[in-house]
Amino acid sequence: MRTNEVIARLDAAVSALRDVDVSAWPEESLRAQLSELSVALCAIDSALARVADEVRARGLRVEEPATSTPSRRGEPELITA
């Protein structure tokens, strides 16, 4: 897969996750879906950790975004120090 396609897929995943508002779920629904939600959250965490570890394994850093400077996609720019 080309790098531009990968970035587009990552952006789509971030956008999809931003649309999730568990605070708006009724308590009963949250309790009913908690096992599935937990599995999904753990899978997301694992996948993100794997990607970050692969970046770090190449001697690079995963940097926290600076919240004061919006990028061309409307997201914070990365601070490069």
Number of helices: 2
* Number of E-state strands: 2
Rg to the nearest angstrom? 16 Å
Main sheet strand line-up: 1-2
Average pLDDT reading: 87
Shape: elongated
Order of helices and strands: HHEE
* Strand proportion: 5-15%
Low-confidence stretches: none
Cα separation of the termini = 30 Å
Describe the biggest sheet?
A: 2 strands, antiparallel
Share of helical residues = 55-70%
Structural class: mainly alpha
Describe the model.
The protein has helices at residues 3-18, 27-57, and strands at residues 65-70, 76-78. The protein starts with a helix and ends with a strand. It contains two helices and two strands; from the N terminus they run H-H-E-E. The model has no long low-confidence stretch (mean pLDDT 87). It has 81 residues and is mainly alpha-helical. Strands 1-2 form a two-stranded antiparallel sheet.
